[in-house]
């Protein structure tokens, strides 16, 4: 789930990528003309002084106490990502043959004459082991054997084989707009101004960006201000304020359904569905 640190790190990454389009092997930013440190939090006075003596600019990203709770419109679980199965199953008459490679998590199912048998694949399994596990489950109800990656159910009228894989689901718990202060620090007004322009150029074009949990952050520019009250100490700064909309989310794993069942109590079996 996204939190303040994720949003701060996103802002830092966007600004750093703009300042150093070719990487940071050369500490001098081709955009600002000086070395620049971009970081979340607030600079320590002594560290700031040492950087200024070395002609290094600073850009800090600091979350403000201002926050507005936004109306959340999506509270239901949504599928965020679904993996691809690595095991495949082919049916030929009364036999099922497995192929591919074994990886967890995924489920392999054999539905024999309407009765499902599901095995959860383990990372240490082999295809032959999966076939044996399914044959063992089936043999509790009727004859079944396995040989290598193939299982056979003699006398079966209909066999279906299915593979289900895990996916990631996500839902929004709440949504908020949080204020962030992005501050350009320089040892002269020229460095300060170049860093201030870099902040605008890095963040200004952004409407939304993806956070680590897959949810979206939405950018709202609010205001800027310049502060030269500490120029006698050679500290020049510009604050750029953004409101960032982001969601607090809950993430879980879920498997695809390989063997749906309906149990109807006290009903007539008009559709051939097992009743009890």
Notes on the protein architecture:
The two termini are 43 Å apart. It is elongated, with a radius of gyration of 30 Å. It is built from four helices and 13 strands. A hairpin with a 2-residue loop joins strand 6 and strand 7 (115-120). It folds into two domains: 4-74 and 171-251, STM4215-like (2-Layer Sandwich), CATH 3.30.2000; 77-168, no CATH class. Strands 1, 2, 3, 6, 7, 10, 11, 12 and 13 form a nine-stranded mixed beta sheet that branches. The chain has a four-stranded antiparallel beta sheet with strand order 4-5-9-8, covered by helices on one side. Helix 1 packs across helix 4 (189-203). With 276 residues, the chain is α+β, with helices and mostly antiparallel strands.
List keywords for this structure.
276 residues; alpha+beta; STM4215-like; 2 domains; 4-stranded antiparallel beta sheet
